[in-house]
Amino acid sequence: MSANDDQPPQSQQPTPQGPDPVQTLLLILVVALVLGATGYLCLAHPSLTAPIAAVGGVGAALAATFSVVRKR
């Protein structure tokens, strides 16, 4: 008999199949709220449209760069 005979077999943990549905729902909710608030600001205060567009353009470029770097 070996020393490992007294130990129960180790169970394998299941691998996750995809993103957590709660995280996905929260991400969608936050994106919708941010876009809605941005749209409201652009309509209610037209003088903020140019700065908001500039920040959005820089943010989109940073998000694209981050996603490309993360895939490597």
Helix content: 55-70%
How many beta-strand runs? 0
Q: Please report the number of helical segments.
A: 2
Number of domains: 1
Can you tell me about this structure?
This protein has about 70 residues and is an all-alpha fold. The chain has one domain (about 20-70). The chain contains two helices and no strands. The longest helix has 24 residues, at about 20-45. It is elongated.
SSE diagram, text form:
Layout: H1 21-44, H2 49-71
Task: Fill in the keyword field for this structure.
2 helices, 0% strand, mainly alpha, 72 residues
How would you summarize what this structure contains?
Helix content is 65%, strand content 0%. By secondary structure, the protein is an all-alpha fold.
